[in-house]
Amino acid sequence: MSITAKDLTHTYSPGTTWEATALKDVNLTIDDGEIIGLIGHTGSGKSTLIQHFNGLLRPTSGALTVQGIEVTAHANLRKLRQKVGLVFQYPEHQLFEETVLADVAFGPKNLGLPQEDSLRRAQTALAAVGLELDQVKDRSPFELSGGQMRRVAIAGVLAMEPEVLILDEPTAGLDPKSRNELMEHLRRIHKERDLTLVIVSHSMEEVAAVAHRLLVMDKGSIFTQGTPRQVFSRGEELRAIGLDVPPLTKLMLALQRQGVDVATDVLNVQEARAAIQQWRKGENTNV
Amino acid sequence: MFKGITIGQYYPGDSFIHKLEPKIKIGLITAYVVFLFLLDTAYGYLAMMLLTLAVIFIARLPLKLLLRGLRPLYFIIAFTLILHIFFTKGGDIWLQWGRISVHSQGVLTGLMMAWRLILLVTTTSLLTLTTSPIALTDAIEGILSPLRPIGVPAHELAMMMTIALRFIPTLLEEAEKIMKAQMARGADFESGNLIHRAKAMIPLLVPLFISSFRRADDLALAMEARCYRGGKGRTRMRVQKVTGTDWLTLAGFVSVMAVFVWLGL
User: pTM for the full model?
Assistant: First the structure.
């Protein structure tokens, strides 16, 4: 098991006027090699939760174990952060080195690897996110396009060769093409490196395409979890907590409201068509 | 790491002190500070302390907040105290140890100087604690504007201050975010010697610089897009007016100070 949380609670600035409970009794398990889509509205506690996974925040109460390491004040943070790579929102804002290669090698260097190994890892990571090594490695990261900068930043975390990779809104602010490319790269990296992947998003549609399982958060707790199919079938409840369901789910829900008895847990157009055809067949035999 | 900063912090409230006209408030505090430097008896300091405590009480500020603001000054206060105890001579000799001696006058002066520092910082922080940054910069603009004919850019200075104050929390938040991101990449900001630590700041400072410039650029553009052309002919949404209460407070303060002088504090 990769990550287990038991009654995980986190309170910011306890004992002051600014006290705020961001997480409340979160229980979850994430298995090795899973792709998890972590979904929730702004302020639902997603970002707070993932910062616990590599020890940037520690539970106020409750227990959290990540890759066999108990996350407490005394945890070996260096080891934990090596095992768990965390890519923040807009990670391109953290770039600082003179060249792309040096920036990506920052992480491995901090792990105490010799220069050669760090550079080799950096090159592998750049290739993994689909950047042409010869074209980018000696350029300043600030000359690149937004999509490229994002990928360099992700490579920077990937170069630490984590066992768990967590990405906070990896596609925010990218154009549709870079968005699809990035998700495709992530899917491939997951397959090749056999890592556990947690993707945070507020777009159901985007993560549903890659995730094995979805965790939906609301007001600091897990609202519901399950396969994308199971979660989508609860479309009405999701809309009640302010999450937008994918257009297809919306269509099926609308049909159902009109008295058309179709399945609402469809994932793609083919399935939607099959569901509608099946309903039409049923209608015909009734007539 | 950045949580302890209280300089320039505003503690919202609607007390009498909060409602005082900011220009008057600045004047009063300036007068207070001048008086603090003119005083030279222990009774005078005691009286000033009572005055400060009264203001804190009326403004309903938590004492803990003010003490926290003093924290960065502990060292300087202790340093002043020790320096005076050992090097100011006069009065009775209380301790003699070889060539080092402690005189009564030294202890007294040391305590008074330390006390003066504490009062100075506490009282001046009362200004920012009870006045919103916007009201404060408006007041500064008001005070400076008579100097405009001789080339003091009153409005521009006030605008710069407003923007700077406005962006302090944003920059702190940004710094914390970048710091966390670099920590996730194994960066270590907390251990090592001074040189090592200074070097460790580079991955924090470079991105912070870049984002501040980007922000400044965006802000300038957004302001121009909304037709901002400097202070000329600009009117205000909230006009600060000196009311009868303000004049009464001023009169009250002057009479209290006059009593202090009369008593020879």
Answer: 0.75
